[in-house]
Specification:
The complex is a heterodimer of chains A (402) and B (596). Chain A is an alpha/beta fold and 402 residues long. Chain A is 38% helix and 21% strand. Chain A has 15 helices and 17 strands. In chain A, strands 9-10-8-7-6-5-4-1-11 form a 9-stranded mixed β-sheet, sandwiched between helices. In chain A, strands 12-13-14 form a 3-stranded antiparallel β-sheet, with no helix packed on it. Chain A has a 3-stranded antiparallel β-sheet with strand order 15-17-16. In chain A, helix 1 runs parallel beside helix 2. Chain A starts with 27 loop residues before the first strand and ends with a helix. Chain B is of the alpha+beta class and 596 residues long. Chain B folds into 5 domains: 176 residues, Rossmann fold; 86 residues, Translation factors (Elongation Factor Tu (Ef-tu), domain 3), CATH 2.40.30; 71 residues, Elongation Factor G (Translational Gtpase), domain 3 (Alpha-Beta Plaits), CATH 3.30.70.870; 108 residues, Alpha-Beta Plaits (2-Layer Sandwich); 112 residues, Elongation factor 4, C-terminal domain (Alpha-Beta Plaits, 2-Layer Sandwich), CATH 3.30.70.2570. Chain B has 14 helices and 31 strands. In chain B, helix 7 crosses helix 8. Classes of the chains: A alpha/beta (402), B alpha+beta (596). At the A-B interface, helix 8, helix 9, helix 11, helix 14 and helix 15 of A face helix 13 of B. Bound molecules: guanosine-5'-triphosphate, iron/sulfur cluster (SF4) and magnesium ion. Magnesium ion binds next to helix 1 of chain B.
Amino acid sequence: MKLTVLSYQKCTGDSSLLQPFEGLSPSDVHSLYLHIPFCFHKCHYCDFYSLVAPSEKKQDLYRQFTDRMIEELTLRATEVIAKPRTLFVGGGTPTLLPASQWERLLEALKTGGWLDAVTEFTVEANPETVDQELLAILVAGGVNRLSIGAQSFNEKHLKTLERWHDPARVAEAVGLARGVGIDNLNLDLIFAIPGQTLDEFDADLEVVLALEPTHLSCYNLTFEPQTALMQRMEMGQIEPLDESEQREMYEHVIAKLALAGYEHYEISNWSKSGQRCQHNLAYWEGDNWLGVGPAAASHVNGRRWKNEPHLGRYLSHRPGPPVVDVEELPLNEQAGEKLMMGLRLFEGIPMAKLTAMLEPQDPRWQMIAQLTQMKMLEQTATHLRLTRQGLFVADTVLSELL
Amino acid sequence: MNIRNFCIIAHIDHGKSTLADRMLQATGAIQDREMREQILDGMELERERGITIKASAVTVTHEHKGTPYMLNFIDTPGHVDFHYEVSRALTACEGAILVVDATQGVEAQTVANAYMAVEAGLDLIPVVNKIDLPSARPDEIAMEIEQVLGLSAEECIYCSAKTGEGIQELLDAICDRLPAPKEAAKEKTQALIFDSVYDDYRGVVLYFRMMSGKLKANDRIYMMGTGRTYSITEMGKFTPKMVPLKHEFQAGEVGYAVAAIKTLGDVNIGDTITLDAHRAAEPLPGYQEPQRMVFCDFYPSGETQFEMLRDAVERLHINDASFTYAAHHSEALGFGFRCGFLGMLHMEIIQERLEREGNVNIVQTAPTVTYEIKLTGGKIIQITNPADLPDMSTVVEIREPLVTCEFIMPNENIGDLMHLCEQRRGVYKSQQYLSETRQILNYELPLAEIIYDFYDKLKSLSRGYATMDYTLTGFRKDNLVKMDILVNAMRVDALSVIVHREKAETRGRALLKRLKKEIDRHMFEIPLQAALGGKIIARESIQAMRKNVTAKCYGGDVSRKRKLLEKQKAGKKRMKRIGSVDISQDAFMAVLETDE
Ligand SMILES: Nc1nc2c(ncn2[C@@H]2O[C@H](COP(=O)(O)OP(=O)(O)OP(=O)(O)O)[C@@H](O)[C@H]2O)c(=O)[nH]1
Ligand code: SF4
Ligand SMILES: [Mg+2]
């Protein structure tokens, strides 16, 4: 693999000022992501950049953080032509940020012109930390979509995940959101939790469907490296479900949600008609997006980078946050990445896009033909996509096309 | 000057190279500060594995009873694969030091090497080594040497190559007891090439032993075997550094010569050097080309292209002509090389050197032996690849190589050994007591049955105490058939094996089971079949992968996800894709599975 790492170096200390935009022609950024890295407890499966703020310094830290995030937005506004259409605030637990700081942040977004073209504005919410007051502030600031982490409604399985919330709070949060006028709601659900049965998962789905969200993300639990969950597995304390059980649950959710009128539009995502998450679509379609906040990743015209996942340095580094993992892949490998992301979508990749990105003599055409013959891929009138068979072994299929 | 030419021979690990260290030190050839362990084992692999692979010759001087002696000695490898190195070294010497570990006693290669030395007409000095160890039993071992090899226990020198104890006594014994080189009967120059190495600066360096006449730098020489002439540009000795010398080499001396020879392929080891202007009437008796016992194919894998592999093979062969190679094409695996080796260790070493020094990735097929095929017309051909077996309607019989095996082992394991040999189609020959607790057993076995896991089984049934040595004795016909393996309905020629008809079903089933373990699950189900002719005799199937899909992949995960998938792909480096099935290196070795 040849990686064209530009003149950037991994930032150590505050000696180097990294300007990830250097040499990039000014470009439109259609999506903006903000990362709020605070949680009140670390869930065992979590590999997001999040930390638990010490309680005595909490308020100060939240304020400092908000200051910096506003400064970063101001800085970036000079570097990109940013009229994002989608905005997503994730974490961490964004709803842990106090209402007063939210007000400042939303105000800054508005005055910075970041919201001018936004049609979808999502905030991730933890069922334990949303209340009426905060929701009202969010709505007033333009938020029109809420993504609530339910994960499971079974106390035993929440315990396995070390996810701390009372399952009853999910319905309350949904009610509160609707109360302030947010109807576009996503719920996150996790399945294939060690010890979980198909019936238990089905019960979770029943609860979720009763809440009638417009959007559902159902993830097969992944044991990420360097998580508590992975360690417990390595020490033999928990055992992942076997492949067949996982597949059975996945098949079940696909069938059940189809019956309930949801469109399966990405490997782990379902929505009511017309309610797909536009922000996430930008990722899968390889669009340009800008990430703000520690650990936030960006992608502009084939160049990727990430703010360093380090809150201390995020706060102290001037003028912008330290940037790491800058990479600009050769076109050939960018194409591989686009295939990897694009084929996650149920509709697949438009043929026109495919012919534009793969040279006629690219060996991947042959691989595509072979995988089509093996009934892992198929061509519709307009798109190349995974077959149902291919869906279950997508990683194997996609690794052939990198 | 007084000259003594000798080699150091022993069973593997009995301390030859360490003893050589002490002799180099005791004679002042190497200063203490330059010393490191087994200094003659210069190759990286020799040092890593702690074994000698290639013999090395050195010249040192020792003063004995007031007169200087020139001692030329050769440290030889103990491993059975490198027997030929020993046999060559012997022809350059009048004597040999037979080293026996005082805690282990006489072992299979002790016997084999001692007999070889006696047959070559050498005088032996038995040395009981490692007497510093608490478990040393020198007197007992000396008695064993007397009983088994007929060398008087009185004559044994006790020493420790670790502490240096007994080394002076040994050096004196070498001067006193080993014969000086015989007076040359002839006038004309004859020098035996007993080894050669390749040096990046000098090209080929010849190791020679003067048998008669004289030789010096700038002489024009004639190689009696190859018929080529050269001019010697440099002559000298290993002390152990290469030291060029101006003097005239006399009969009995050992040294090296450089003569602008480009590749090792241009010289025959065992050839005779004579002066071009005054040629000797006939050459010295040469060597037989060493027998390649096992053969396997190397194919490029991963990023490696055939051309890269070819370069690597050719380059290594310039340095090390001990293996043979020929380009080969497999229906399933494409272009590669069929290579011949002296044994399994040798094969492993060559593969490792190729990958390391040639920077290539290799997939290797399972090793096989040579088969003799008698055809309907009476013609006999040899094949080194089961896939090359001609159409069975033209085959009258298949003959396989046989070896006689000598085992030395504790009494209590004899039953288990006999059982193992029976399983492997062995024929009992003889049995003899070596001491009260150990015996020597003789079996005749098909070579194919012992090349792979036999040695491990022997070691485990005897808790490490049994040792074995074997020599090829000829070919014998048996009820042998070729078993083909089909993966996903495609015959994979590189997985074909020649097996005994009566064992075909069990072998087939075991093989498929093992293949099933070694081939990863794919996106589709993979049927595995074993077939004799067109007839399927065993089947298995590898279930399709049920689920392999990353649930989550959002903006921040793209690079990480890509790298993960790339890793999945890189895991396939040591694999070959046949049809749409990736077959791993270990799967190619599955055909060696013999557990029934
Ligand atoms: N204690 C003790 N160890 C010894 C002595 N001689 C050799 N060894 C050890 O025995 C091991 C084998 O020694 P080597 O000199 O490599 O044996 P070798 O006979 O040259 O082995 P190959 O060349 O592989 O056949 C090494 O670990 C040595 O350190 C000795 O006199 N005493
Ligand atoms: S709430 Fe989300 S970000 Fe926070 S620890 Fe749990 S999984 Fe991680
Ligand atoms: Mg040695």
